[in-house]
Design brief:
With 223 residues, this protein is of the alpha/beta class. 40% of the residues lie in helices and 22% in strands. It folds into two domains: 2-120, Rossmann fold, CATH 3.40.50; 127-221, Winged helix-like DNA-binding domain superfamily/Winged helix DNA-binding domain (Arc Repressor Mutant, subunit A). The radius of gyration is 20 Å and the shape is elongated.
């Protein structure tokens, strides 16, 4: 397996790399969150091993950004934060497993290899579909009922997020964080403007609406 380890503690990184290398795996190491995210996005890995507490970008933010950009490699969090809330937060951020420090080297190897087996059974989704609306993530195209729809990059990203959460209520906060990468509310109508433009493109000339406003809550995309 090819594994990316993102760990800022040099001694810990050397230890984990040695354990996984001895088990026959190839391990790349990044020492901070920002470089780790770039490496994960630019290279195909069988598994990620991510420390929660990282400089420049913590592990939660790193993995959330990686998943939002389409990253599919299974990920294991390593952390001294072992409370239930911490583990739940890690899994909700896109982690597939969570190992609390200190841990036995044999358990680390077993969990990483389990992730590798899981990853090998899954094919990355390259197409999304809701009703007659289809998105090709590789060609970066959107079609509804055979009609091609031209979207600006931000509109494409907004629609992708809505389609990945089809049938769910997507809140303003979720859109600010996942589509605009804001972790605060800038008190602008930027979301309303983009949603309105998107609705005009995917719904206006068709028989039934797909993009719905949920009053007081957010938006939902569903057939």
């Amino acid at each position: 397996m090819r594994v990316l380890l993102i760990e800022d503690d040099a001694d810990a990184a050397q230890f984990v790399r040695g354990v996984l290398s001895d088990a026959g795996h190839n391990v790349d190491v990044c020492g901070d969150g920002a470089s780790g995210l770039n490496q994960a996005r630019s290279t195909e890995y069988d598994a990620l091993v991510v420390d929660r507490m990282l400089p420049n970008m913590d592990g939660i933010k790193l993995l959330t950004s990686y998943r939002d950009s389409g990253g599919r490699a299974p990920a294991l969090f390593l952390s001294a934060l072992g409370e239930v809330d911490h583990r739940v937060e890690g899994l909700q951020a896109g982690g597939d497993d969570y190992l609390v420090k200190p841990y036995a080297p044999s358990e680390l190897v077993a969990r990483v290899e389990a992730l590798g087996r899981r990853g090998n059974t899954e094919s990355p989704a390259t197409r999304l579909s809701v009703g007659g609306l289809e998105m090709d993530l590789l060609a970066r195209t959107v079609v509804r009922d055979g009609v091609k729809i031209d979207l600006q990059p931000r509109e494409f990203r907004l629609l992708e997020f809505l389609m990945r959460h089809a049938g769910q209520v997507v809140t303003r906060t979720m859109l600010l964080e996942k589509v605009w990468d804001y972790h605060f509310d800038p008190q602008t109508n930027v979301i309303d403007v983009h949603v309105s433009r998107l609705r005009g493109k995917i719904d206006k000339d068709f028989d039934r609406p797909l993009l719905h406003t949920v009053r007081g809550a957010g938006y939902r995309l569903e057939a």
